[in-house]
Design brief:
This protein is about 35% helix and about 20% strand. It is α/β, with parallel strands linked by helices. It has a ten-stranded mixed β-sheet with strand order 3-4-5-6-9-10-11-12-13-14, covered by helices on one side. Strands 1-2 form a two-stranded parallel sheet. The model is unreliable at about 340-345 (pLDDT under 50).
């Protein structure tokens, strides 16, 4: 069975043409699937019974199933979702005063093997399809509907398990689906993709014309330290990465966010702050400082509150715009990969 959630509008039009239908049939399906949130072809009353029979025979509207759920005292919800083949991925709902944001996974596992991250400990199993990424948002929207507060997902960050640019085409189709007006209609400026530094992906992304946001998982201001924290740096060192970032800013006319995870005594010193200031000089990006969620998979410790604010002060005095990311779900398995790793151990 072919999952219709896998197709962005233009591709669904081609499928409908292949079925002998008019292109407008794709728009009808999008309206039922995303605006009306109908999960059965039989309920699509403006589609002929004959074609509904074809849809039921060849196609499906499949969503991931909730395997495990954690709810934080701050309202954050972390889901472990089971896919059709039994693989599992994590999704997180974070509540802000401006809306509901979902952190979406793009792969089952991850091959980037960053030393501080739980996701890479189990390795990459496979890429997610566009529909499996869309499904993460659809499931969260169902939960929000059940709460009865009239809320829905308004912001999306592709920062969960996996490297988005290692699954480039599927991630782009996912973005087109959720951004499309007859899809989930999430504004482009409310969608952010995070990469650890695949420069070919950065250059391609710059030419997409999507007006979405790009975040760079930086986490170190020099090659020696970044080689230890992030193996990808041995393939794409900082000089190459920063060149790609500058190209992105010029072509896309968009600034980037530099994500910087603070690890006690590792990358949170005044010297590191000064190096970071020099590294990003000449770019339009700003720095998002991230308190570390400790795991039992490594020996890294989170920087103290004093060190975090001192680092922020160094950057600010150096002319860098920086913020400290608000923490969510500190009383649950908040870090990427923790809940899946726990489930895999139990299984």
């Amino acid at each position: 069975m072919i999952n219709l959630y896998d197709f962005e509008h233009n591709k669904l039009e081609k499928i409908m043409l292949g079925e002998g239908q008019k292109p407008y049939r794709a728009t009808q399906l999008f309206v039922w699937m995303y605006e009306k949130k109908v999960f059965s072809f039989d309920e699509m009353t403006d589609i002929s019974i004959k074609f509904r029979d074809v849809l039921n025979e060849k196609y499906c509207l499949w969503l991931p199933k909730i395997f495990a759920k954690q709810v934080s005292q701050d309202g954050t919800i972390k889901l472990l979702l089971e896919l059709h083949d039994g693989n599992k991925v994590e999704t997180v709902l974070m509540r802000y005063n401006y809306g509901c944001a979902v952190c979406v996974s793009s792969q089952v596992g991850c091959n980037m093997a960053c030393s501080f991250c739980s996701s890479g400990t189990l390795g990459k199993v496979r890429n997610l399809t566009p529909g499996e990424m869309v499904g993460q948002i659809m499931v969260i929207n169902q939960i929000l509907k059940e709460e009865g507060l009239g809320q829905h997902v308004t912001h999306v960050v592709v920062m969960g398990t996996g490297e988005p640019f290692d699954n480039y085409e599927n991630v782009m189709d996912f973005i087109r689906i959720i951004n499309f007006q007859k899809g989930l209609a999430i504004g482009a400026r409310h969608i952010t993709v995070s990469t650890c530094g695949l420069i070919d992906g950065i250059r391609k992304y710059a030419k997409e014309g999507l007006q979405t946001n790009l975040a760079i998982s930086l986490h170190a201001p020099n090659d020696k330290l970044r080689n230890v924290l992030m193996k990808i740096n041995k393939v794409y060192p900082l000089e190459m990465l920063m060149s790609a970032v500058k190209e992105y800013e010029f072509v896309a006319d968009r600034r980037v966010t530099y994500e910087y995870l603070l690890l006690e005594g590792i990358n949170d010193t005044k010297e590191c702050a000064n190096e970071l200031i020099e590294l990003i000089k000449g770019t339009k990006g700003y720095v998002n400082l991230i308190p570390y969620n400790e795991t039992n998979k490594n020996n890294y410790k989170r920087s103290s509150g004093n060190r975090v604010h001192a680092f922020l002060d160094y950057l600010t005095k150096g002319g860098v715009t920086a913020t400290i990311r608000k923490e969510f779900g500190s009383d649950i398995d908040a870090a990427c990969g923790q809940l899946r790793a726990k489930a895999e151990v139990k299984i």
